[in-house]
Structure formats: C-alpha cells, structure tokens
Amino acid sequence: MRRIGLFGGSFDPVHLGHLLVARAAVEEAALDRLFFIPAARSPFKPDRAPTADAERLRLLRLALAGRPEVELDDQEIRRGGYSYTIDTVREYGRRFPEAQLFYLIGADHVPTLAQWRAAEELARRVEFLMIPRPGQPVAAWPPGFRGRALHGFPLGVSASQIRERVRQGRPITDLVPAAVAEAIRNYHLYL
Ligand code: ATP
Question: Domains in the chain, please, with CATH?
C-alpha cells in the first residue's frame, strides 16, 4: 500500500521550515509521495487575504524544483474560495483509493483540528504527522484523531516573520531557498 503525504498551508511565502517539515516527513514516515497543497484561502486566516495565487505558486515551484520527493498540487487554488482540507482529502481518496493518506501539520495547528470542517470524517480518512515547532507546546490529539509526532528539524521560522523582514528591508537569506529570495526581490513581493 502506498503512503501519500499531504501538506497544506498558505505558503505565503514557502520557507525553510516548510521544506524541513517535508524532509522529515518523507524520511520518518517513509512516504512514497508528498504533495504541497497551497490553500486558496484559509478559513483560519479570515483577516488577511493571501498574496496572489500566481505569486505563491511561482515561489513554490522555485522552492520545489529539483526535489523529486515532493510535488505541487494546485487543486485548492483552482477550486478557489475558502479551502477545506476535507475536500482535498476526499479527492485524494478518489484518486488513490488504495493508498494510506498522511496529513502534515505543524504543532501550532493541532489544537484546532476538532474545528476543521467534517472533522470526524477527516479523522477517519487520514493519519496526522505533527512536526514540532519551537515555542509551541506539543499538543494532545483531539479525541478521534490519529497521529504521531515526528522529530523533524525544529526551526522557528514562519511566513509572517519573512513578510515582516522583507517589509523592514532585512535580509531573508538562509530563511528561504536562494531562488525564492531572488524572486521575492525581483517581483517586489511583501513590500
Ligand atoms: P504564517 O506565519 O503566515 O501563519 P506559517 O509559516 O505558519 O504562516 P503556513 O503556510 O500557514 O506557514 O503553514 C503550513 C503548515 O506548515 C502548517 O501546518 C504549519 O503549522 C506548518 N509550519 C510552518 N512553519 C513551520 C515550522 N517552522 N516548523 C514546523 N511546521 C511549520
């Protein structure tokens, strides 16, 4: 049975924290394939419209280039509107009926799981892989959810921190892949 990992998020922008999550999940959970799935819009971030889809996708393509273990899936962007994980997970269930599905999640999101749409069905369909995030206590799984914590390579970088640094004119070298930093500069993003 194939093991497929799903990694959803705003990726605004993608950063090294995300790439290290992916590296850890592929290795520690022995995933055969891992998909990065950028949300059109997160129901948990209603106050901030994300950067244009095309720009976030451009940065993701640059970040994932040359990494055969990870793939980009733009289905949530194509659907548009608020993105609900259950819709995406159902689609993977149809596409890979024989596969075992794993959903990657940072420790900060674990306490919110019970509020995700169709939480019971989601808990049935996927096993969660939690990556520790510095400064975030390791939360217990809400009742009904199956998951395990990975060791990962805990790194306290966040997309909001990257956006803030760009606005302040501070370097983001070594926090995002070089090609991503260059594109952020060239396309005048996050100013
Ligand atoms: P923002 O700062 O804008 O809220 P973010 O850096 O948390 O963004 P998202 O795109 O919202 O990034 O995150 C997608 C997923 O990746 C979430 O499950 C989040 O918890 C996880 N994640 C993001 N950064 C890290 C990190 N440094 N370590 C572990 N998990 C992370």
Answer: 3-154 (3.40.50.620)
